[in-house]
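Input set for joint prediction.
Command: fold jointly, output C-alpha cells.
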Amino acid sequence: MKIVCLIKFVPDVEEDSTNRILNPDDACALAYALMIKRRNPETIIEVVTMAPRTVMGHLEDLLRLNVDLATLISDKAFGGSDTWATTRILARYLQQTNYDVILTGTHSVDGDTAQVPSQLAEICDLPQMSNILAIEAGSFLAGKPEIEVDNDSSIQTFQVELPAILSVHKDSSYKLPYVAYQDLNRDVSSQVRVLTNLELGFLPEEVGLEGSKTQVNRTFVQKWSKEEKLIVQNDEDGIETVYGYLKKNGFLL
Amino acid sequence: MKKCLVLLENNQPNLPLELLEVAHRIFEKSSVFTVGLPLDSQIASSAEYFDVLVHAEGSQIPAYDTANIALIAAKLHEEYGFDCIIVPATNYGRMVAPRLAMRLDVGLVADVTGLEQVNGQLEMIRPAYSGKLFAGIVKKGMGPLMMTIRPGVFPAATNPFKTTQHRVFPFQRKSSGITFIGSREKPATKDIRDSEVLISGGGGVLEHFSRLQDLSEALRGQVSASRRIVDSGVASRKIQVGQSGKTVSPRLYIALGIYGSVQHMEGLKNVQHLISVNIDPLAPICSLADVVVVGDAVDFIDQLLKRIQR
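C-alpha cells >
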C-alpha cells in the first residue's frame, strides 16, 4: 500500500516564535501512517509538502522516522498562493503520482481555513472526510477503512472507499515516535526530491498572488476596549468590589 | 436585484436567519432574492424566510455526502447565476464549500467575522496568520462571492416572512464512496453556548483547572476553557471558547488566567459583563473587561468563594 501524507510546516503559534513545527493535525496523520507501516512493513510512505526550501531539515527528520520518500514542492512563483492556487499546484503533482490513500490533517494552525483537503478531493474526484478521530487499522490495511468522525455532539462511523483523502484531527492522539538513536545522523538526502515549476509547468499568472482568487487587502490589529473599567487588586477590597458587582447585576441572590 | 444561495444545516435553529442577515449586510441597499439549500433534506422552520427552498429529487442526500451537495449547488448556480454563496462553517459546511469553490473556480473565504465596504469593494474580515491580526480579504476574478460563517457570529435579525416556493430539483446522485455505519452520542454535557454564566480558565489556572467547578456552581454557571487548556489535555474541546472552539454570548464571563489571544476574543460575542483575573493587567483580555482583578486567579477563586459563602 502506498500512502501519501500531505503535510505543512507552520509557525509555532503557542510558543510565539519563528520556529516552524509540523502542523499538529498533520503530525497525527503521519503518525498513523507510520503505525500502519510498522504493522505492514511493505507499506510505502511519501510525505508531500509545498514550502520554501528552508524546511529541508524538518523533512529529513521525518525521513529518519522511516518515511520512504519526501517530495518538496518549492518555487518562488508559488509564493503567496491562496488555497485555490495551492490546491491546483498540489493536484497537478498528485495527479501524476500513484497512491492508494492520502492522509492529511484537518486544520492548520496558521491559516486555519481547512479548505485544501476538500478542494483537492474535488479536483481529484475523491471521497474526503475531515475531523477523523480514529481509523481502524485492520479495515485500513484491507483497503476499506472504517473511520470515526467528530460531528460536534456525536461521533459518526463511516466506511470509505479508496482512494480517498482522510483528514485526521489532532484529538485522534496519534503520536509521532522519536527518531531512533542509530538514525539520528543517517544520510537521507537521496530520499528527498524537490519539484519546481519547471516540472509542474504553470504559467506565471496561474499561481502565486496573481493566480489567486482571493487577496489579503490589509491586516490590522483589532482594538478592544471598554470605556468604564474597574481595576482592583486581588485583596479584601478587590474581592468586595467583585462581590458587589456580581450582586448589583443579579448574579448573586 | 441580487441573488444569494444560502446552505443550511438542520440542527442549528438560528442559523438561517444569521446567514440571511449576512446576505443583507453584503448587499446593503439592494433587495436580495434568496435560495436555500439544506445540507440534509428535512428543513422546517427556516422555510418561510426564503424565496425558494430546494429539495433534491429522489433519495435524501445526507450532509456527509459533500461531493453531491456541491454538485447540486453548482447546478443551481448555473441556473440562477448567484452574486453570493453563503455556507455555514459547520463540520460538513466546511467540507462542502471548498468543493463548490473549486467547481465554480472562485475564491472562498473561511470563517468571516465581519464585512466592510472599502473603496467600493467588499472586504471579508477574518482572524489571520497565527491569530495576531485580522485580515480584510477581497475576492479577485469573476464569479460569486463565497464565504463560510460560523454559527453565532452574526446575530439573527428579524426577517419578513416570504411565500416560499418549494422546489424539487431533479438530480442523479453519483456514488459518494462513503457509507454511513452508525452514530453515537458523545457523553452529554450541557452546551456552553446555552449558559448565561461562564467561568473560563486559561494558562494561569492550568494546574488547578478543576477548582473552577466550585465557582461555577456558586454562580450557577458552567466551566469553559481557552485553547491552551484544551490543548494541554486538561479539558474537552467541547468547552473551548474561541475561533477553533465555540462562540459564546453569556451575560457573565469570568476569565481566569486567560491571556486573550485574538482567536479567544473572537469567541466572545455580546458578552454583557466580563471580569478578568490576571497577574498581568495588560493582558489583551483585560482591555475587554468591565472589572480587572490584578492577581493570582486560583487565589481569587478561594477568596471570592469565601465571600459568597459568608
